[in-house]
């Protein structure tokens, strides 16, 4: 289906809105993080398989690596959400663009710019504030795992960029299948109720399945600025839904840290977009 920009923006808003409910349902479903991550992903894999009409690419080295990175991201994020505040979990995951710059330098010999150093410095300050806030709250391990989620998340777009054409959905499909196996050891000790079934179905079908399909369709038809700014809906609304349902609130230092991290990521992205547009205009 061909999209115009207006509908693509609408799809992207819907995507971010659906993503933002992740923290809420992960918090209220009384299962272990591995069981939640695994069952959610198996449900999502079914959604992807139906959407792809069973046309999944055959496994290869790049798909396996991408699936492993995707799995690490999901498992770390769900675990972190259980062990720290939802705000900390999602905002620390949003440090991913900074880790992507570091990985680009370490593994692909991409140049580290003054902008990268500036961004790393301020994101580092934000991360320090998160961890200072967690000392009294006993959420240190959760914050560490949330940070690892951001590191893993940085590898997803890097994997997708190096994937053969048409393999992006297959990578996510295999990643969801792999993540599902994390649920197996805890299934025998999981109490199933109607609310938990409803919650996990929402997570698998809408929050992870349909949302990613909408994202892959929309992102090709929106401007670079739209692709940067609209997903910010997720870290803004994610803690809000959790607060409304559970009264959980992040510490004041974590709030300051989150503002610094988000502001730095947005500034860096918009600067790069403007720089790219300027170069393109120069060569016209």
UniProtKB/TrEMBL annotation:
It comes from Fusibacter paucivorans. Keywords: Membrane, Transmembrane, Transmembrane helix. It comes from the Bacteria. The chain crosses the membrane at residues 7-26, 32-51, 63-80, 86-108, 115-135, 141-160, 172-188, 194-215, 227-246, 252-273. Belongs to the EamA transporter family. The keyword Transmembrane helix applies. It holds the Pfam family EamA. This is EamA family transporter. Residues 8-131, 141-267 form the EamA domain. The keyword Thylakoid does not apply.
